[in-house]
Structure formats: C-alpha cells, structure tokens
Q: What sequence folds into this?
C-alpha cells in the first residue's frame, strides 16, 4: 500500500520509523493527533513565556550594567546597585562538578555491581533504598547536611584532605564546613539515585551474547565489563549523567543551606560560596526596586542558558561517542 | 447561643453602615517577623467580632509593600518603613506601628556567658577587623571572662530580611566605616562571614560552629533559649535585650506623623540600641465602607487590647506615648471621606 515507508522500514531494520500514515484518517485519529500537537506545543510555549518574562524583567538591569559586565563582574552589592553574576555562576558550576566527580564513579560502580555481579536477592535489597533516596525532599537533605555532614567535614574530612592533598590549591584554607565541598557532597548524594537507576536500565539492555562472547574468548569478568559492556552502554550512561547534572545545577534549597552563601570566588573547596538558584531564592522575596528584581531575573536567565548549553554539549558528546562501531543503547 | 449571636450580629450590622450580617473577609500580606503575633490577634479578634475575618499571608515585607501598592490586599505589613520612592507609588499610605522587634547578638564560645560588646567592637567584628576572640577590643570590656584564642566566624542572614535591615541600620549609625562600606539594606555586601537562611539558619550555623557570632530576632532567641550578648548603648550603659529595654528605646524618640523613624542607637539609659518598629500599612482613606470601618476598628483594638498579648509571644509592646499618637492618627483616618473612630469612640 505504502511502498515508500515500507522500503524505508526495510532499509533500517530494528529502528522505529514514523508510524506509516494511513491514506484516509478518520475523525478520532485526527482529533487525537490535534490534541497531542496542542499538548506538545503548550510545553514549548510555556518555556518561551518563561524566557520572555525573564528577559522583560531583566532588560533594565542589563541595560544598566551591560550583559558582559553583568556576567563577568564578581561583585554583588545590592545597597549600591552593583550586580555581577560571576560568583554565582562559578559556585553553580563548581558544586555541580564536585557532585558529578563523586557521584559518577559510585553510581556506575553500583549499577555495574547490581547488574553484573550481585545475586538477584541482593539486587532488590540494595536498589530499593536507592530509589528511596530519590524521594527525599531537598530541604531534608539540606538539614541533614547542615547538622550532620557539615560538622563531620569541618572536624574530620577537611583537616584530613588538607593534610594529605594540601599541595593542591583546592584543599587549602581554614576548614569551615560550610562551602563548595559540603554543597557538592550533598548534591552528589541527591543525584546518585538518578544516575544509578538509569545506568541500571541501560546496562540491562546490553545483550547477554556480548558478555558471553567476551567471556568465551577468555576475558576476565573485569575485561568483559570494560571491553564489551561499558562501550555498549556508554551513551546511555552519559545521558544518565546529564540528567543528574541537570538536577545538580538547579538544586536550590539543599545547596543554600550548606554552601555558606557568600558571593565570593575562591579556589579552595573549603571556602564558602554561592549558587545561582540559591541567591534567587534568598533575595527575591525581599527584593526592593526594579534593579535588584531585574538582576535576580537575569541570574535566572543565565541559569537557563547554562543548562541549555550543557544539554547541547551533552547531546553532541552522545552523538560523537555513538559514532563508533558499537551503537549505544540510548 | 445561635440566637444571641444572630441578635448580636444584627445589632452590629445596624450599627455599622448598611452592611448585612454576612461574613466579611479582610486580607493582608507582608512581613514574616510579626506573623505569630498577628495570627493570634486575628483569631482573638474574630472571637470578639465573629463577622470579621482577617486573612494574612506572611510573604515578606517586600511582597507586602508591593501588594498594598497595587491594592490587591486591604493592608500590608512591613518591618522596615517604606522608602520615599515606594511611598510615591502608593499615595495616601499610612504606617501604623504595631509592636517592636529587636535584634540580638548570639555567639558560640563554650563556657562564655555574659559577653559585653561595644558598638565599635561589634562593627569591627562584622567588618573583619576584629578576628580573634581574645582581641584586646573584646578583652577590655570583659575583664572577668576567659576568652579563647580561636578565630571569630561571622554568621549573617543570607536571605533579604527586615532583621538585616535593622542590624545594618544600627551598624551604619555607630560606625562610619560600616556606613561607607556595606551600608544599610535588607541584604548587603558582607565583608566577611557565612550566610544562613532565616533566623533558624543563622542559629543553626552559630550553634554548629565554635567561635561563631551572629544576629537573630529577639523573639527567636528567647524561644530558643539563646544567650545574647550585652550591648553598650548610646548613654554608655550596658543593656541586656529584654522586652522592657526594647520598649524603652521607642519611648523617647521624636515621632514624626508618618512614624517612619529609626530607633536604633536610641537615647536613654535603659534603652536597648538595636530595635525597630514593625508596621501595618493602610490607606488613610478606605475605599470600601464596611471593610474600611472594620479594619480601623481592628487597628484600634490591636494597639490597645492587642498590645497586652504581645509580651506573651516575645514582642515588645508599644510605649504609651506611641499608642497615644497612634490613637490620634486612627481618628483622623477616613472611610470614603468620613471619619469613623472619632464619632464612634
């Protein structure tokens, strides 16, 4: 009936092609299609409105300081109407990187253990609390961070890091507890369930035959994982990481409770900092005057842009990494 | 029971304009600091006058000013007085002081009680110039106390707040360096220190960090049994923050007609120097006859009977002199051009 799409489907086996269009669609089909189109467009329109509102609110302050100066200035002084976003951008990126640095190896290791090594009983025993972690409200993470994690960091972890890795500028300075490291660690715990559970799903899609083939060729278990399983799942794990990163970038409550809320830039992870969502949440309710409100909206716009850029970068990375001989699962 | 209530209601309805016995809903929005007291007031007043129901959203002073300016609520509430710029956008607005709040200095040095601080030392600490607990500036005023060599960790509010406004207003008055540096505002560019979100965030951080010093609301400090520092006031006396010493700070101040006055660093031997009024914001001429009348009557009740419950919730009541002045202001206020309280009282 539809030779064109049939050949297309035949040419690309195993891939979902667009559902073949029936020649004469009935009313229900058309109504359904229209409804889905409206729903899809709505999401897009809402996003556009958010960008529009942010642009409109921040236009004044951007004209006042200039976009480049706003992004690159590191001073934030509400009393004198001096607004610079750099400390917040820096804090957001640093805490997210620290979070990924800690969470990624743990999550992937955990996912590998649960799919490749553990007996089935253990798997459900461990994966249940992990998915439970995802359901804890972020303010609870923040409180736990403030009252449990921060004292441990100040009295044990940070002095230890300073003593052993103190030659790096990252681990110098007075251990305060509150700061980039505390925020990064809280974020790591928060994004762990996201990365782990998606990685598990991805690893499950790796065909058994690949593992069996590797093992049959004399590979050890580690070699089978490294050479057969991981390359296949690479793109999927990358996607999981991006989802985790997205959560880390936008997290507000837990971060503001442990980051120290000081709009400064320091190389040391022990130092207090600030993040984009945190300053918006802290200052918006009592913002006085159009300039401060506008500056906070501009920070929102920057957060939007940072998230967008990272997503684009991640997509490019996925595309590049899947161009190899083994196709990814995501 | 219901019959008497109906009878009561209808008399009231007759007495007030031509309003039926319907329930009346007055809405307000603003400061979070007086919220516990206000909600007690509204429920007490509702018991006395079941036909008047007051709904208050504690969204912050900034939001309260915005909403009353746009007239989306019947009254606003703010800790800091409105600025001239804000006043210009809301012509005919009137500040009515309700109670007093104070900011106290809390610290975490084990074994150290009754710490005394001069204004110069406090501003030095918050400017980062006094950075050790055994600094001569602190030791001079605390001869009997054993001060550790530890570093001082400054903790301030990270969210914009009226508390920070009062605190920085005080520091600007006592220290030229502070005035030229961070200045006065709901959020300022702090030279040193960590930011905690809300009174509880500051308290949490101070409690966690040995050698920390911060500032919180008096009511919050009292309810959480924090030991505050003793401050030297303008007359050179050492004053503990108590409800009496806070009320005292407001009693000698020269009060302008719009009540927009800072009482930090107030004169008087017993006056605690870091205190402020909190305000309800209403329009001098009320547009809605029934609501306007009810609102004015409520305000009258609040500054008289309401003040009596303030102390039980750790708010310092207005001194008599201020209540007297507020009486005059309320009597001058009108509903659609007609004075209400002057005739009915």
A:
């Amino acid at each position: 009936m539809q030779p064109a799409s049939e050949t297309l489907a035949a040419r690309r086996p195993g891939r979902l092609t667009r559902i073949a269009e029936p020649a004469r669609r009935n009313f229900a089909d058309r109504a359904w299609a229209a409804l889905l189109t409206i729903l899809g467009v709505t999401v897009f329109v809402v996003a556009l409105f958010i960008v529009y509102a942010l642009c409109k609110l921040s236009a004044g302050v951007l004209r006042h300081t200039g976009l480049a100066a706003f992004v690159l200035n590191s001073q934030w002084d509400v009393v004198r109407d001096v607004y610079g976003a750099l400390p917040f951008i820096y804090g957001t990126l640093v805490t997210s990187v620290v979070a990924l640095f800690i969470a990624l190896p743990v999550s992937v290791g955990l996912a590998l253990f649960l799919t490749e090594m553990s007996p089935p009983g253990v798997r459900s025993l461990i994966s249940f609390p992990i998915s439970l972690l995802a359901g804890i409200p972020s303010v609870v993470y923040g409180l736990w961070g403030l009252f449990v994690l921060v004292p441990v960091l100040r009295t044990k972890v940070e002095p230890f890091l300073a003593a052993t890795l103190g030659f790096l500028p990252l681990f110098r300075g007075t251990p305060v507890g509150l700061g980039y490291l505390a925020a990064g660690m809280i974020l790591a715990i928060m994004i762990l369930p996201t990365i782990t559970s998606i990685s598990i799903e991805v690893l499950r899609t790796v065909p058994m035959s690949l593992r069996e083939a590797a093992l049959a060729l004399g590979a050890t278990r580690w070699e089978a994982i490294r050479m057969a399983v991981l390359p296949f799942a690479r793109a999927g794990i990358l996607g999981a990481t991006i989802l985790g990163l997205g959560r880390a970038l936008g997290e507000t409550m837990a971060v503001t409770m442990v980051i120290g809320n000081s709009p400064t830039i320091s190389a040391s992870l022990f130092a207090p900092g600030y993040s984009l969502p945190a300053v918006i949440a802290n200052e918006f309710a009592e913002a006085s005057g159009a300039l401060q409100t506008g500056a906070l909206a501009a920070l929102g716009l920057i957060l939007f842009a940072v998230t967008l850029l990272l997503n684009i970068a991640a997509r490019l990375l996925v595309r590049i990494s899947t161009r190899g001989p083994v196709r990814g699962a995501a | 029971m219901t019959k008497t209530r109906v009878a009561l209601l209808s008399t009231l309805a007759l007495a007030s304009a031509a309003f039926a016995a319907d329930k009346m809903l007055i809405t307000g929005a603003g400061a979070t600091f007086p919220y516990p007291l206000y909600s007690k007031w509204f429920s007490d007043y509702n018991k006395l006058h079941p036909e008047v129901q007051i709904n208050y959203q504690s969204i912050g002073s900034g939001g309260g000013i915005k909403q009353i300016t746009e007239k989306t609520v019947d009254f606003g509430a703010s800790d800091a007085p409105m600025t001239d710029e804000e006043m210009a956008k809301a012509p005919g607005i009137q500040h009515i002081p309700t109670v007093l709040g104070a900011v106290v200095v809390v610290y975490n040095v084990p074994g150290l009680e009754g710490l005394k601080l001069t204004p110069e030392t406090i501003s030095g600490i918050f400017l980062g110039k006094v950075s050790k607990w055994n600094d001569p500036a602190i030791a001079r005023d605390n001869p009997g106390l054993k001060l550790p060599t530890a570093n001082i960790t400054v903790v301030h509010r990270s969210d914009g707040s009226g508390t920070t406004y009062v605190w920085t207003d005080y520091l600007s008055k006592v220290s030229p360096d502070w005035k030229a540096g961070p200045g006065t505002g709901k959020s300022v560019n702090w030279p040193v220190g960590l930011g905690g979100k809300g009174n509880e965030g500051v308290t949490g951080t101070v409690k966690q960090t040995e050698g920390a010093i911060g500032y919180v609301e008096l009511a919050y400090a009292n309810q959480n049994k924090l030991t505050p520092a003793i401050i030297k006031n303008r007359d050179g006396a050492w004053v503990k923050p108590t409800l009496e010493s806070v009320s005292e700070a407001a009693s000698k101040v020269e009060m302008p007609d719009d009540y927009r006055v800072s009482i930090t660093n107030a004169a008087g031997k017993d006056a605690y120097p870091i205190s402020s009024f909190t305000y309800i914001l209403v329009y001098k001429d009320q547009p809605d006859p029934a609501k306007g009348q009810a609102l004015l009557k409520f305000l009258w009740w609040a500054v008289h009977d309401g003040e009596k419950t303030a102390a039980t919730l750790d708010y310092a009541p207005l001194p008599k002199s201020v209540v007297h002045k507020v009486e005059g202001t309320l009597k001058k206020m009108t509903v659609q051009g007609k004075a209400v309280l002057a005739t009915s009282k």
